[in-house]
Each structure stands twice: as C-alpha cells, then as structure tokens.
Write a structure and sequence with these properties.
This is Aminotransferase class I/II-fold pyridoxal phosphate-dependent enzyme. By secondary structure, this protein is an alpha/beta fold. It has 15 helices and twelve strands. The strands form three sheets. It has a seven-stranded mixed beta sheet, sandwiched between helices. Strands 9-12-11 form a three-stranded antiparallel beta sheet. Helix 4 packs parallel to helix 5. The radius of gyration is 20 Å and the shape is globular.
Length: 379
C-alpha cells in the first residue's frame, strides 16, 4: 500500500471555499487574489517581450535585468545591498522560494519556530524535511508576538524561525522593536530565518515595512522571499524571488534548480522594465489602503468587530456578537445562505483554534466590496 509523506493533508481551505463560492454564486472574498486587471502597461510589456522572441528558458537564477532591478529597489527602500549575480534568485512564486529555503536549511530533527496563524505552505515543507515545528500562538485582536515566550522556545535544536510581515492572515506588521528583539534572540546562535515578505508594499496608515534586511545581523542569516503576484495583481504569473547572502544563496539554488529550474521568461523581462518606474510599486500602499477603507466603511454599521488591517490585503473580523457557531461552519453557512465567502482563521492554527474570527480579502473592485458589506451588515 502506498504510504503518503503528508497523510494529514487534503485539499486546501482556499480551494474548498473558492469552489463553494462558485457553486453558490457567492462573492468570493476568501482566496487571496484580485478580481481586477493588472496595469495595461505591464500587460503591454508582457506582450511585447513574448512576441519578440523572449520565450525560451530563462537562466536558472533568473533574468539578469530583473535581478538587477530588484537589487536596486531593495537598496533604495531598505538600504540593504544584495549582489544581483550571487544573492538574488528568481523563483516560480514565493511559495517555491519558501520551500527551497526551508529544504536548503532544515534537516531531520531540526526545530523550526512557526508563528501561528500561519500560511499553509510552511508546515508541509518542514514535515517533508523531517523538521519539527515549534508553535508560537498569536491571538486576536492584535496578534502581537511575545518575545519572552519566543526566547523560552529556543533550544539547541532550533535551526530556523519563519517570519511573515505584513502577516497573512492577520494583517499585523512587524515594528522596529520586533526586528530588534528578533536580532537579540538569534545573535551568536546558529539559527536562520525565512522572511515571507510578499506583502511588503501593501502596508497602511503611514507605517513602514520592517524587512529583515534592515538589520545587518538578521540580513546575514535570512532568506527573504518576495512576490510580484500580490504587488502587481498578477498572482497567476507565479513570479517570486529570494534575497540571501552568497553562501545561503548557493544552497538555495541547489534546491531551486531541481524544483522549477527557471521561471516564465517574458514576464521576467516585462517586470524588469516595469520596475524602472518606481511609482509602480510606491503607489501600491495607498491603492490598497483605499480598498481596505471601502470594505471597512461598508461594514461599519454591522455587528462585526474589527481593528483595521495594518498590512496585506486581508481584514479579520470577529463575529462573536452574532453567533457562537464554529468559524469553519459559519464561513460555509455565510457562503451558502447570504452569498459572501470568507476564510475561517482556525485553519491557520495546527490545533484549529477557533476565536470566532473570519478573514476577508479586500483585493476586489469597489462594487464587490460594497455589495459584500451591504449583505454582511444585514446579519
């Protein structure tokens, strides 16, 4: 009989809820993807490169022009230098980059600290490498990290800490103090970090993204994974990247080359050209803050309670004033009965912690957000 390496995994909640939304004709605020088009200029560039012969394998490390633009952007924004030849790698989405970073670092018996609720790709990658997840549970409404608790979880077996900021699914973000506390913990220890920073440009209310590379001590121990999909509304292109010091990038690339080897070539050239205009990414925070505000204004008179999201394109809301139903059951009920799909946050906890909180994606057009808010406000 075939023995599964991941016996406890089934279909993801994102696939389940999107399918349920389609079946019932519901407004899909569950899975995290935009329902609006990318910038016509970016699409024009894709067409230009694809019709002019840029359709063969890209280099394993990524198109040189794109790596150079990413290095330049990171230096401008965070003051951190990465050599575009040896320290920047293009991947087939950030999920691939995260997997490659974990696989390059974690061996059987190594412990990996995971803050939960956690993006669902982390644990399978740890499991496949024989690693042992060590959970730090974050709680609604602010989901702040207790760094003393983190210190107490460090052991001689701790090999990696996975950090996600801005955070999916909670919308919380790291502060400068969080970066400093993390740096103290890993100082003089053989501990590496994965920085899941795919929402780096989706941050609100004048806050600044606190990348791991802003701290020199953390930078030297970190695989920082990013994505163009979330930033430029092109999740289907699956173009991600990883910044890491040369010695870490060498190991990262050993895994990457046998996962996907290379990534969609014409899109890499298109994105390299598109990044030359820095306003294309500097305008993203205000664009998505407005989306957040449209959604929050639409549910302001409802019975839901919330703290405005600080980053990502997700908003968590508490329905504790409405019902005592389990969050997974309630999410399914709302999809079927009122036609609005969300994600129950318990699925992001290994013990399925139910805090009566749903996650809504506001990367949608205004009409969809306002219509969803009108329906939810009637509950």
């Amino acid at each position: 009989m075939f023995k599964s390496k991941l016996p406890n995994l089934g279909t993801t909640i994102f696939t389940t809820m999107s399918a349920l939304a389609a079946e019932h004709g519901a407004l899909n605020l569950s899975q995290g993807f935009p329902n609006f088009a990318a910038d016509p200029e970016l699409l024009r560039l894709l067409g230009e490169y694809s019709t002019h012969g840029f359709n063969q394998y890209a280099p394993m490390t990524g198109v040189r022009e794109l790596r150079e633009q990413l290095s330049l952007k990171t230096k401008k924004l965070y003051g951190a230098h990465y050599d575009s030849e040896t320290e920047v790698t293009i991947s087939s989405g950030a999920t691939e980059a995260i997997f490659a970073a974990i696989a390059a670092t974690v061996s059987a018996g190594d412990e990996v600290i995971v803050f939960e609720p956690a993006y669902d790709s982390y644990l399978p990658a740890i499991d496949l490498c024989g690693g042992i997840p060590v959970y730090i549970t974050l709680h609604y409404p602010d989901f702040q990290i207790d760094w003393d608790l983190v210190k107490s979880k460090i052991s001689p077996k701790t090999k990696m800490i996975i950090v996600n900021t801005p955070h999916n699914p909670t919308g919380s973000v790291f502060s400068e103090n969080d970066i400093n506390e993390l740096a103290k913990i890993v100082a003089d220890r053989d501990i590496y970090l994965v920085g899941d920073e795919v929402y780096e440009h989706i941050i609100f209310d004048g806050l600044s993204h606190q990348s791991l590379c802003t701290n020199s001590a953390l930078k030297e121990k970190s695989f920082i994974c990013g994505s163009f999909g979330k930033t430029f509304h092109i999740t289907g292109w699956k173009i991600g990247y990883c910044f890491a010091p040369k010695e870490l990038s060498v190991e990262f690339r050993k895994i990457h080359q046998y996962l996907t080897f290379s990534t969609f070539t014409p899109a890499q050239y298109a994105l390299a050209k598109y990044l030359e205009n820095e306003n294309n990414y500097l305008s993203i925070p205000s664009f998505y803050q407005r989306k957040r505000d449209v959604f929050l204004e639409s549910i302001a008179g409802s019975r839901f309670e919330f703290i405005p999201s600080k980053g990502s394109f997700f908003q968590n809301v508490s329905y504790a004033n409405i019902t005592d139903a389990n969050d997974a059951e309630y999410a399914i009920q709302l999809t079927k009965t009122i036609g609005v799909a969300s994600i129950p946050t318990s699925v992001f906890y290994h013990q399925k912690l139910d805090q009566k909180v749903l996650r809504f994606c506001f990367a949608k057009d205004d009409e969809t957000l306002q219509k969803a808010g009108e329906i939810l406000s009637k509950l």
